[in-house]
Design a protein that fits this description.
Blueprint: E1 2-3, E2 13-14, H1 26-39, H2 55-69, E3 79-83, H3 93-99, E4 103-107, H4 126-134, E5 139-143, E6 150-153, E7 159-160, H5 162-175, E8 183-187, H6 192-199, E9 204-208, H7 212-222, E10 227-228, E11 234-235, H8 245-259, H9 263-266, E12 275-281, H10 292-305, E13 310-315, E14 321-327, H11 331-359
Parallel strand pairs: 3-4, 3-5, 8-9
Antiparallel strand pairs: 1-2, 5-6, 6-7, 10-11, 12-14, 13-14
Length: 369
């Protein structure tokens, strides 16, 4: 797949899947990159105007989603607004959900190769929220450019993220005795409110490192019926190893149709704790426990949050940044805690840089004879 995921078109890269639908492991990806660089192939530029959707493959895919994934699902009388992010779902989602009986309104479904994810889709849902309210629709559905993410809008215009989607579907599966292991797999970024809401229903939350690849690995290794990320990547390993936003939407719509409840009612059982993320630019990425002032501050804050909040401090995998994520009961309190820790990080890294500069041996300038 040629994809920039949820990013602008100029971030496009090549995504390669295994025959199972799984993403490749890091070692295989690096080996492919090395082979490509060694061969230095040149690919002909494909102009957007020359691109044609394979109608036979599209028909097979829509048929699968409707007749297998969506078997028995009747959306008659349901009003849905769909934001296709000017991406992969543009020629598929409107047809799919209309064929299931929904009254569909569509926005951002006119891709030109450059407007993908541009102020639209799962990362920019403002217009979708407004349209759901203006049209008095039952819900809104937003995909990202390659349509593996799903973010929703409920009947009251509120955003419904991946954590809430996990909660809704896990509750449904658990009530039917179909939640394997009575557990849900998510990442360290999922809100503590999800963990507490699931726990109250006798469901455990297993956390992995960030990335839907890690979620799938844990689902395969430890078993499970559902896993995903706060960003809207949801995986149903019994159905598919690939994240698919349209498949995820079908599963949420099935819960709504079977229960006769609105999306706002379905998510009411999960209370999101205030969550704050601060990014601090760093010049290097030494182990945090090697910097005493930072390590002591983290330990102190974790003690302070014990039982009523959560702290996650990690380096970005793609940028020279340290991410500080805090959850707690009070927004003002966690704001103060996060800013205090961020300042300690900045001060510590400045001290490291200054110490380095002092220890650098400067060349001696000699006078000419």
């Amino acid at each position: 797949m040629i994809s920039a995921s949820h990013n602008p078109y100029d971030d496009n890269g090549i995504k390669i899947f295994a025959p199972s639908g799984q993403k490749l492991d890091d070692a295989t990806e690096l080996a492919i990159e090395a082979d490509l660089k060694a061969g230095a192939p040149s690919f002909p530029l494909i102009q957007p105007a020359t691109f044609e959707i394979d109608r036979e493959l599209k028909a097979a895919y829509v048929s699968y989603l409707k007749h297998e994934a969506g078997a028995g699902l009747n959306l008659n009388g349901l009003k849905i607004v769909i934001d296709c992010a000017n991406g992969a779902s543009s020629d598929i989602a409107p047809e799919l959900f209309s064929s299931l009986g929904a009254n569909v309104s569509v926005i951002n479904a006119s891709p030109d190769g450059r407007n993908i994810n541009l102020d639209c889709g799962s990362l920019h849902p403002d217009r979708l929220q407004k349209m759901v309210l203006d049209t008095r629709s039952n819900m809104g559905v937003a995909f990202d450019g390659d349509a593996d993410r799903l973010i929703m809008v409920d009947d009251l215009g509120n955003l419904v993220d991946g954590d809430q989607i996990l909660f809704v579907i896990a509750q449904y599966l658990s009530a039917r005795g179909e939640l394997d292991g009575a557990r849900v797999v998510a990442t360290v970024m999922s809100n503590l409110g999800l963990e507490l809401a699931l726990k109250s229903s006798g469901i455990s939350l297993v956390r992995t490192a960030v990335g839907d690849k890690n979620v799938l690995d844990e689902l395969i290794k430890g078993g499970g019926s559902i896993g995903g990320e706060q960003s809207g990547h949801i995986i149903f390993p019994k159905i598919s190893f690939a994240g698919d936003g349209m498949l995820s939407a079908i599963e949420v719509l099935r819960v709504a149709a079977d229960s006769g409840r609105t999306l706002s009612q379905l998510t009411a059982g999960m209370k999101r704790l205030p969550q704050l993320i601060i990014n601090v630019k760093v010049s290097s990425k030494p182990p945090l426990d090697s910097i005493p002032e930072i390590a002591d501050s983290i330990n102190s804050l974790e003690t302070e949050l014990s039982g009523k909040g959560r702290l996650l401090v990690r380096y970005s995998g793609t940028e020279n940044k340290l991410r500080i994520m805090i959850e707690g009961e009070d927004q003002d309190v966690i704001q103060r805690q996060a800013e205090s820790l961020a300042e300690i990080v900045r001060r510590s890294f400045n001290s490291i840089i200054n110490a380095f500069d002092r220890n650098v041996e400067h060349p001696v300038r000699r006078n000419s004879l």
